[in-house]
Amino acid sequence: MLSQTNQPKPNAFDNALEQLRIAAEYLKLEDGIHQMLSHPKREVTVSIPTRMDSGETHVFTGYRVQYSDARGPSKGGIRYHPNVSLDEVKALACWMTWKCSIADIPFGGAKGGVICNPKAMSQHELERMTRRYTAAIADFIGPYRDIPAPDVYTNAQVMAWIVDTYSALKGYMVPEVVTGKPISIGGSLGRDKATGRGAVFTTAEAAKVKNLDLKKATFAVEGFGNAGANYAEILQDYGSKLVAASDSKGGVMSKNGIDAAKLIAFKGKTGSVVGMAGTQPIDDDGLLQLDVDILCPAALENAITPEIARGVRAKMIVECANGPTTPAADKILDSNKVFLVPDILANSGGVIVSYLEWVQNLDRISWPELEVNTKLEDKITGAFKEVYRTSQKHSTSMRTAALMVGVGRVADAIRTLGIFP
Ligand code: NAD
């Protein structure tokens, strides 16, 4: 992928390793543990022969990376996208490890992905590809081993196909093999909006420490999908005004504000935010550099490069996406005193409610949505406070503080477990 300046985007795993290096330095991590944390525990690459509707066979490539299970079974979403690569999946699995650790839930980190263009595939083709991918990784996943969930361009229906295929192979129903399932087969109430809701809880905490009045705040969302659209709708309930939003087809803005619920309905009908009544078009770079209080990158990695960072005017960035800011851009934002709630904290609401879904499944119980949302708020607010305390104590950015908390706990677990044999 190329940015507007035609500079190649940095490798996401290089970014993840650079972030780890910074945390390791602050934590004075032993070299052996730093080395262990620089390598995924397991990387699986699979070929996925799929019968297409035309009758032809197409062989897709898929990955599952289990980065660490030192703190519990590994956990992470599955992404369907043409730009999926092994390094991207490794980076996302690495970030999942720190994210579960910061949220203090008993999971390690994993991620999966298939190189495909889901927008150009029929539901039947997606189903056949998902089932074959599941069969290919079935020996590596499981409720006590590695628990997938949705990510970009996968959803509750994809999770249902995984449950059905995995269960067919086992010979009994195993809904707890994934999270983010439909409610009818054991999904948790509140899971669909959990990432956006969690990010709003962190925004509210950030607003308290930065004295920002959310009732008067303006915000922009890059990537109006599951995470971004729910973030917008819920933050709007706090009185904040959505002034711009974008998706892969383009962006829209209005100084008077855009009703998030209406924009969700519009996108549901037309497939994009583009063309929403009462808005003007805006490109992605323009959106990222808008004069707003809060900027929420909620699309893909490397959206905020140094070139973009130099023009960022937002007071606060809340990273709903994974890895939207490059390490070089981080330095610029930091020196410009932009308060950044990093991805591994801001978007942890999804995995926190995934954990709650897994617990409900294993206990064969189901909690009301309010109870799920309250548990989410407790967990993510606690995580924010711990990261903020760490940033104040060590005079570091929130990103470095989050990494210190996340990496530090995983390192502690490895030290305690020791190395086999
Ligand atoms: P999604 O597929 O529902 O939404 C992604 C959105 O981004 C879509 O609207 C798409 O059109 C848009 N997009 C893609 N490329 C874009 C571009 N270049 N510019 C602007 N918009 C673009 O996916 P999602 O689940 O909302 O995931 C979005 C991000 O949030 C990813 O980084 C994902 O890893 C992260 N995340 C999601 C969850 C979750 O529970 N859904 C949890 C944690 C992190």
Report on the structure:
The chain has 421 residues and is α/β, with parallel strands linked by helices. Among the domains are: 39-175, Rossmann fold, CATH 3.40.50.10860; 194-346, Rossmann fold. 46% of the residues lie in helices and 17% in strands. The protein has helices at 12-27, 31-37, 86-102, 123-137, 156-170, 194-210, 226-236, 260-270, 284-288, 306-311, 327-335, 343-346, 349-363, 369-394, 398-417; strands spanning 42-51, 57-68, 74-81, 109-115, 146-150, 218-222, 241-247, 250-253, 280-282, 294-297, 316-318, 339-341. A seven-stranded mixed beta sheet has the order 9-8-7-6-10-11-12. Helix 1 (12-27) packs parallel to helix 3 and helix 3 packs across helix 15 (398-417). The longest helix has 26 residues, at 369-394. It starts with 11 loop residues before the first helix and ends with a helix. Residues 1-5 have low confidence and may be disordered. Residues 150-153, 195, 222-228, 246-248, 284, 298-300, 320-322, 347, 350 line the site of nicotinamide-adenine-dinucleotide.
